Amino acid sequence: MIKNISNLGDAALYCDFGTEVNKEINRNVINYFNNLRDSNFLGITNITPSYNKLVISFDLKLTSFAKLKKQVENLELKKNNNSKNNLIKIPVCCAEEFALDIKRLQKLLKINEAKIYETFFSKNYYCYMTGFIAGMPFLGDMDKSLFAKRLETPRVKVPKNSIGITEQFCNIYTFESPGGWNIIGKTPVDIFDNKKNTEPNLINPGDTISFYPISKLEYENKYE
Amino acid sequence: MKINMNKNYFEVLRPGINSTFQDNGRNNFYHIGIPFSGAMDNRNFILANTISNNEINNPVLEFAYQGPKLKYIGENISINVTGDVNFKIIRKNKNLELSCYENIILENNDCLDILSTNRSVYGYLSIGGTFEVDYYLNSCSTNTKAKIGANSGEKLEKGQIIHLKNIKKILPKNKIEYLNSKIENIRIIKGPHFDYFSKDAIHSFLSDEFNVTKLSDRMGIRLKGPKISNIKNTNIKSEGLVKGVIQITADGDPIIMLSDHGTIGGYPKIGVVISADYDKLVQIPPGSKIKFKEINLKDAETIFKLYEMETQNLISNIK
Question: Is B100 within 8 Å of B29 (Cβ atoms)?
């Protein structure tokens, strides 16, 4: 449940669900997010879920902090509003030219390449949030044996569709972008499709992701 | 009667530094990483469309510092420019000096040269009609990072053609008397991580001057000044941002989030700029000095109401 609601400036609510990062707290955040999306409260312009916070921005011409705070506090949550949470399968090609940091990870984690991939592909990952850049999913949790620090010097350009891991999280670079996560492969699937005018993002907060390995040949065929 | 849709157009002779099509912005997509975008200076955007007798959310051409040079081909059309902008029309080798906030008639073969914004950043070009632009997720606002919105998500480029439609019969010479006032004091409300910083750091944040650096664009303003030292943690678990949020980086420098900001961030938020000061904040050019002043939520709400009333007064005083 929401522990505290404060104001973030004069046109947003800052809802605090706790300090830890875990699925239980995040499911709570996403449940509020889904319920608020259906609520049609006047003036809401954006709702941003993250690990353990929910930021609700609003149009100050239409409502105010006090009004919206009361509405959120009195919101009747529909239970198990998880119909919007899907299981999505994402193919990953781990060919040498895409797995930019696999050598570094072998040294850092003291595990061989085969074991790293076996461990990575054996788990499903939960989407805590999407954002920073359009469509980028923040997924977790990694197996403890794969917890790795960020690169000391972030890359200026991480190739689009790269799969990166750091600490308990993994993500997919939806655009070419600067970044410091350890890159272990690449998917031929566009996670954010800027040609699609409805639901351009493949992965939403609350979804579950299952990665599976594909060969270079399969990667090339999927790309065509 | 056959209508030639492409009869009226601008040819871009010079694109300017950062010229993009914008409207009121894109709501409800922060959760998938798409920021609000939209015209940076909302008041000048509204005034531009109002003077053109357009729908309030009609696309405008936003420019920064140096604007575009555009050759016009077509029937007579009303245009207006808002902001603090130096521009002229070149008609048959003669220069016509003009003022912002009034409708001007552009004739076939005229060249509109938007030279510069004066001690400010953004200006707006509106036409009595509509720029033919693409829409994406209910808005034409160009976001060059996600490559979405008008012009395939890109800035204007040299040589491109901008098609115009729904050209209005020449409009009355609508005019607003308006002086863009400048501010140096930016009013803020305490952020959720105010207590991450030492007393001295907060004192310094609220009393010293900060320089607006060149690393400022539609995404944010980076400031340099005294280092704001953190006593808790220079990182937080990433969480949602809104425009106007002031984050303090691990280096101790403030960054103010603007309309194209990343939707989530992992630096502590020391404060948030009040809504009423946002339009003026974005107009502060690099090289300027600013100061922050803390006020409470109630005052911020009252100041916003007054700001809105002032905008409505300007609109109702159009002559």
Answer: no
